[in-house]
Amino acid sequence: MTSLREGNTPVVKREDYAAPAFLVDSVDLCFDLDPAKTRVLNKMRLRRNPAVAAQPLRLDGEDLNLARVLVNGEGSSFKLEGKQLVLEKLPEGEEPFELEIFTTCAPAKNSKLMGLYVSQGTFFTQCEAEGFRRITYFLDRPDVMASYQVTLRADKAAYPVLLSNGNLVEQGDLDDGRHYARWVDPHKKPCYLFALVAGQLVAREQRIRSRSGGEHLLQVYVRPGDLDKTEHAMNSLMASIAWDEARFGLPLDLERFMIVATSDFNMGAMENKGLNIFNTKYVLANPATATDADYAGIESVVGHEYFHNWTGNRVTCRDWFQLSLKEGLTVFRDQEFSMDMAGSVSARAVKRIEDVRVLRSAQFPEDAGPMAHPVRPDQYAEINNFYTVTIYEKGSEVVRMQQTLVGREGFARGMKLYFERHDGQAVTCDDFAQAIADANPDSELARLLPQFKRWYSQAGTPRLHASGYFDAEARRYTLTLGQSCPATPGQPSKKAFVIPVALGLLDAQGREIEGSARTVVLSETSQTVVFEGIDAAPVPSILRGFSAPVILEHDSSDAELLTLLAHDSDPFNRWEAGQRLALRRALAAVQSADAVHQPLDAAYLDAMRAILRAPELDAAFKELVLTLPGEGYIAEQLDEVDPQRIHAVREAMREQLAHALQEDWIQAFEAHQDNGAFRPDPVSSGRRALAGLALNMLCLAARENGNPVWPGKALQRFKDAGNMTDRVNALSALVGSGSALAQPALERFHALFKGEELVLDKWFALQAGAPDRGGNILPLVKQLMQHPDFHLRNPNRARSLIFSYCNANPGAFHRVDAAGYRFWSERVLEIDAFNPQVAARLARALDRWKKLAEPYRSAAREAIARVAAKADLSNDVREVVTRALAD
């Protein structure tokens, strides 16, 4: 692929893809590990690609000290061009040749956490997307797959554990207190899947026999002292292995599978073949330190990285534009895994709702902002910026729609064909979709495949328009569906998508009309669906299960939404009806010229009371229905956004809900507060979630009426809690309500968990995300940055405080005096100096500045321009701010 330039930033375009001029058959790496100066000997066996015209060999490298280059054992001429090592005088023809490169690097100085780096005395690597070039010169692209043998040498006392990909074939002692380990990966892989770890670690081990009869060793490595927090991660790994073999017939293909946890990591985890490196956040858990959300996150991420073993490792991406080939597919697989693990219909629905909330709150705004891009992008300046919710979550929805169109069994057939065709290859999103369609030749997907693939090439969130007409005389109901999609950067007009629309009809009493449930495949800009034999005007239930990632525009009456909320057989649309009722009231209050008082009417409050009292509904589902839409989601529905007005309205809604349902909140708390010994199962976690919401509401009501009873009870529950979920819920109730008891509780919390880094992240995040009732949150955040336990260079800690404020607390961040924006610009520049990936993610907090009302809009633009003006800005951040400022 060639690189063009826009301004000072090089741009890589998908249309310029070209196959590699050289192929790498094998790589033999030898590391002499030293934090200040690690020596890397790279012996490769290469050959010219016969399908590509002869040209020089160009190897990528960054922050390396080059000491030696040998070709077939002899010195060779070379030159350095920018960040590439160029060799022109190489053997002709297709015969393989040996290339030896000796370099050194300084892992201890690697603050970018890409390539080889040191964290708390342990060596780690992160090579996706382009980190391997920081280890040795190489063809750093995903379509170059090779066999790897790795030898690690290090001081035995300092680094007793030496790990790399594949199987351990040899280990032993060396002179001078050093030792070595040799690893061989039996599967070819791209260099982004290379990994090594060396340090003082301990492991939880488990031997298993797979369904196919294979014996495997599973290991979860952590720092000494954390072993008691690894049981859930190991259980999640075993469940993932069993599920993938049962659901898709995909077995574990290595003698051993290893997970290693580190606290310094830019991402959640990385699927390196056989040696997954994880952020500690997604490994460590016990009831005293981890919440239900942490347990669920560990199960999901462990599953995700393990499922990559096939969808990403055995079959990988041809180029980085195809990133969703592995990520979207694997998110779909981890979502399906978590739903299957949840068990009950209700628990599955809760998982689906939670996934859709992420899509709507993060991906829909991305689709409507300056960083909008297709699931398969057409160009990028910095590939790290495209590890986005569009690639992951929207990509997952595109895969889910394929399963909807061919059925669960048909999708399994398609997966089987996909691996039969492409195992061991680097392929494209088109190859995947073609395999699913070819395995189901009579399906709607096969019939509409070229049009369906517009989901990969067109950015933006489609609008699904729905309107109905009932003909009483003909006993006929006609539902008209239409679609449109707004312009996005570089794509002013869009062609029609293929949209599967699951729907059904309810009668006035809320009973499902027999035979009305169906999935309509909308492939035109407009089409009609006719229901015959309908006796009275029905209530349509549209987009059940969120069958497509679209925005539904249907002018339902409040009465219809209340019917759906009370009776719909589809749990997702039941929840959705409650959200739409709340959103309708929030928008009316935001757009009103009147002072914010009581946005909620009696009909809505009665409906919420009925949900809270409904004995047939699970606690987890009740908690979701009774949680109001977030400030960011409300803002996305408006053309012009006043963040302070939205914050005031939502707070008024919360307070009104707290007061009006106070007796019911008391009953809900008392009925769900005691759950016995901690279990992170859906029923128990749902009960804790509802008890936590009830306690928050009761403390909020107490704030208004000055009643000290419930804050006192919250403080006592905080002190007595037998698990972290209940403890954090009680602390959140005190902090969220602004209780005077919050400060002593925060101090006690810090004293209890001073040595637990992941728990301290919660402590920082809770304070940075608190409601801003007097402009006090920004001063508090600045104060906390000076706290002895705050470390800006640790990504988790930076995210817990700075991101919680800038990205997740709009009411506090968007200040009339622009102080929040100034703080943001200072932190972006400060972090960019040592970790551009983290800085670029923070830079996106102002993606949607053009929607802001004045004075916010001008102040936000000024802050973005201040960042853009920095001369030595990284490509990561420059791409974000340049696109944000573009017309």
Automatic annotation (TrEMBL):
Its cofactor is Zn(2+). Keywords: Aminopeptidase, Hydrolase, Metal-binding, Metalloprotease, Protease, Zinc. Residues 233-444 form the Peptidase M1 membrane alanine aminopeptidase domain. Residues 86-193 form the Aminopeptidase N-like N-terminal domain. GO terms for biological process: proteolysis. NCBIfam families: pepN_proteo. Residues 558-886 form the Peptidase M1 alanyl aminopeptidase C-terminal domain. Its EC number is 3.4.11.2. InterPro entries: Aminopeptidase_N-like_N, Aminopeptidase_N-like_N_sf, PepN_Ig-like_sf, Peptidase_M1, Peptidase_M1_dom, Peptidase_M1_pepN, Peptidase_M1_pepN_C, Peptidase_M1_pepN_C_sf. It comes from the Bacteria. The keyword Oxidoreductase does not apply. Belongs to the peptidase M1 family. Residues 460-554 form the Peptidase M1 alanyl aminopeptidase Ig-like fold domain. GO terms for molecular function: alanyl aminopeptidase activity; metallopeptidase activity; zinc ion binding. It is an enzyme of class 3 (hydrolase). This is Aminopeptidase N. CDD domains: M1_APN (cd09600). Pfam families: DUF3458 (PF11940), DUF3458_C (PF17432), Peptidase_M1 (PF01433), Peptidase_M1_N (PF17900). It catalyses: Release of an N-terminal amino acid, Xaa-|-Yaa- from a peptide, amide or arylamide. Xaa is preferably Ala, but may be most amino acids including Pro (slow action). When a terminal hydrophobic residue is followed by a prolyl residue, the two may be released as an intact Xaa-Pro dipeptide. Aminopeptidase N is involved in the degradation of intracellular peptides generated by protein breakdown during normal growth as well as in response to nutrient starvation.
